[in-house]
C-alpha cells in the first residue's frame, strides 16, 4: 500500500526536530519520489501504445469529423481502463471543413502539374476551376503594399522562401502568418485566388496544409499551399519574365458539426480541488494520420499522469485534457476546445487551476524547461533542475507566458503556465503533411518526454507551491 511521501517524510522526523526540519524532509522526499517517477517513466509503454492505437484505428481526425468523434469516444474508454476518474466528453458546436478534390497546373506554353493542398476552411473554386495569370510577391508585406484592385482577374502568389529549421521552431511564425492573412489580403487586392509556398522546412514534393483565417465571418477566396519543389518551379518560371497562367480547382466546403474535449483526472488526496492541466489536442489534419500533431502529445500527457498515479496519489489532482478542433479557425473567435473548456468553469473552479502545460510539438526529446513567470529561481526551480537535468532537460531563465492554442484561454484567464521545450529541428519537415505518420515517432525520445512530464508534474502535484503568488507585479 502506498504511503504519501508527505506522511512518510514526517514520520521519519523525530518529535524533537519537527519544529526545525519538516519542510526540508518533505522536500527531499518529494524530490526522491519525483526521481522515481521519472526513472520508471523511462520504461513507459503506455505512450507508444496509445498513439499506435489512435493513429491505426482512426487515421486522420479532422476537426468535427466522424473520425475525431469516434477517436474521442475511444480515448475516453482508454483513459478509464488506465484508472482515470471523472472521465467525460465535453461537446461544443463547430464549423467543420472538408477538403474534397483539388488540383493545380501551369497552363499555356509550359504546361505541367503542380502539387498543392487547399488551405483549411478555404472555399472551393467555381465549377470548372479558376484559370488566371499569377503575380508573384516575395513577402506578405509586398502583397499588402499592392494597390487595392490591382490584382483583378489574377492569382496572388506569395513565395517568402524556404522555412529555416530551428530547434525552437521559431522559423514557422513568419510563414504561418502568410497562410493566415494571405487570402484576405489577396481578396482586398482583387485577386481570384491565393497560393503560397508551404509553411514547412522540407524539400519534398508534399504540400503543408493548415488553416487560414476568417475575416468578417468568411474566408473570402480559395487558398492553396504549394510543395517546396513546385514553389521553386513556379517562381523560376515567373522569373523568366513571361506571363504564367495557372489553373486551380477545389471542391472544399464547410458544414455544421460538433467537436469534443476528452477530460479525465488522477485525483489528489489532500487538495483534490486544486487542478493541474496537461493538455494536447485530438484532431489532426486530413493528409496524414496525426501522429506527431498531435497524437504524440496526448500519448505523453496520458502516460505521464499514469506514471504519477502508479507512484501513488499526490496532494493535487492531475487532469489530462484531449482538446477538440485545435487545428482550425472559426467564423467567430470561440477558442475552439480550449475556449469551450474555459466557459465550462466557474470563477471558483478557474481559481483552483494552479498549473497548466501543453504538449503539441511532436515527439522530439525535451531539452529545456520554462517555468511560470516569477518561478525561474528559488527552491522549486532548483528541485525541478535536480529532477530533469539527468535526462537532458535544462532549466532556463526564460519564463513561459502563453502555452499553446489549447490551454491559451485558461492561461490568459490567469492560470500559471509552464513549457517543456522539445527539439523541433525536423518537426516542420512533417507538420501538416501526408508524412505525419506513426513511423516518424522515435520510441526512446517519446519515453524521455513522458519522464520529463511525469517528474516535473509530480513535484507540482505533491507540493503546495503557489505559482500565482510567485508572479511579480505587472
TrEMBL record:
Residues 1-25 form the signal peptide. Keywords: Carboxypeptidase, Endoplasmic reticulum, Glycoprotein, Golgi apparatus, Hydrolase, Lysosome, Metal-binding, Metalloprotease, Protease, Secreted, Signal, Zinc, Zymogen. Pfam families: Peptidase_M28. Its main location: endoplasmic reticulum. Gene3D superfamilies: 3.50.30.30, Zn peptidases. It comes from the Bacteria. Residues 261-454 form the Peptidase M28 domain. It is found in: Endoplasmic reticulum; Golgi apparatus; Lysosome; Secreted. InterPro entries: CPQ (IPR039866), Peptidase_M28 (IPR007484). Homodimer. The monomeric form is inactive while the homodimer is active. This is Carboxypeptidase Q. It comes from Brevundimonas staleyi.
Amino acid at each position: 500500500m502506498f504511503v504519501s511521501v508527505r506522511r512518510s517524510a514526517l514520520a521519519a522526523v523525530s518529535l524533537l526536530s519537527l519544529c526545525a526540519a519538516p519542510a526540508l524532509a518533505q522536500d527531499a522526499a518529494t524530490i526522491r519520489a519525483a526521481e522515481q517517477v521519472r526513472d520508471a517513466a523511462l520504461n513507459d509503454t503506455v505512450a507508444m501504445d496509445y498513439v499506435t492505437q489512435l493513429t491505426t484505428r482512426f487515421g486522420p481526425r479532422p476537426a468535427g469529423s466522424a473520425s475525431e468523434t469516434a477517436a474521442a469516444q475511444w480515448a475516453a474508454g482508454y483513459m478509464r481502463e488506465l484508472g482515470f476518474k471523472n472521465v467525460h466528453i465535453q461537446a461544443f458546436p463547430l464549423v467543420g471543413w472538408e477538403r474534397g478534390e483539388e488540383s493545380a497546373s501551369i497552363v499555356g506554353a509550359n504546361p505541367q502539374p503542380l502539387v498543392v493542398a487547399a488551405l483549411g476552411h478555404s472555399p472551393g473554386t467555381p465549377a470548372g476551376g479558376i484559370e488566371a495569370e499569377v503575380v508573384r510577391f516575395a513577402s506578405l508585406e509586398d502583397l499588402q503594399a499592392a494597390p487595392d484592385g490591382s490584382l483583378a482577374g489574377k492569382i496572388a502568389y506569395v513565395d517568402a522562401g524556404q522555412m529555416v529549421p530551428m530547434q525552437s521552431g521559431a522559423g514557422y511564425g513568419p510563414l504561418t502568418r502568410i497562410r493566415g492573412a494571405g487570402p484576405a489580403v489577396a481578396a482586398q487586392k482583387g485577386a481570384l485566388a491565393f497560393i503560397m509556398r508551404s509553411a514547412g522546412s522540407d524539400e519534398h514534393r508534399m504540400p503543408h496544409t493548415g488553416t487560414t483565417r476568417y475575416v468578417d465571418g468568411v474566408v473570402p477566396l480559395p487558398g492553396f499551399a504549394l510543395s517546396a519543389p513546385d514553389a521553386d518551379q513556379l517562381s523560376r518560371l515567373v522569373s523568366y519574365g513571361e506571363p504564367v497562367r495557372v489553373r486551380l480547382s477545389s471542391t472544399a466546403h464547410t458544414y455544421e458539426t460538433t467537436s469534443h474535449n476528452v477530460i479525465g483526472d488522477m485525483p489528489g488526496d489532500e487538495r483534490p480541488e486544486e487542478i493541474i492541466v496537461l493538455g494536447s489536442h485530438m484532431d489532426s489534419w486530413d493528409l496524414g494520420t496525426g501522429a506527431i500533431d498531435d497524437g504524440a502529445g496526448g500519448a505523453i500527457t496520458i502516460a505521464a499522469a499514469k506514471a504519477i498515479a502508479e507512484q501513488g496519489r499526490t496532494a493535487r489532482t492531475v487532469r489530462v485534457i484531449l482538446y477538440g478542433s485545435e487545428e482550425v479557425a472559426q467564423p467567430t473567435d470561440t477558442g475552439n476546445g480550449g475556449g469551450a473548456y474555459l466557459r465550462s468553469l466557474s470563477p471558483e473552479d478557474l481559481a483552483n487551476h494552479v498549473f497548466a502545460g501543453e504538449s503539441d510539438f511532436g515527439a522530439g526529446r525535451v531539452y529545456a524547461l520554462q517555468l511560470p513567470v516569477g518561478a525561474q529561481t528559488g527552491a522549486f526551480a532548483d528541485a525541478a533542475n535536480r529532477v530533469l537535468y539527468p535526462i537532458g532537460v535544462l532549466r532556463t531563465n526564460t519564463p513561459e507566458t502563453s502555452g499553446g492554442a489549447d490551454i491559451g484561454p485558461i492561461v490568459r484567464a490567469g492560470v500559471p503556465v509552464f513549457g517543456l521545450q522539445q527539439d523541433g529541428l525536423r518537426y516542420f519537415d512533417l507538420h501538416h503533411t501526408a508524412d505525419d505518420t506513426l513511423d516518424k515517432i522515435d520510441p526512446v525520445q517519446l519515453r524521455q518526454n513522458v519522464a520529463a512530464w511525469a517528474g516535473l508534474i509530480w513535484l507540482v502535484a505533491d507540493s503546495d507551491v503557489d505559482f500565482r503568488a510567485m508572479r511579480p507585479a505587472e
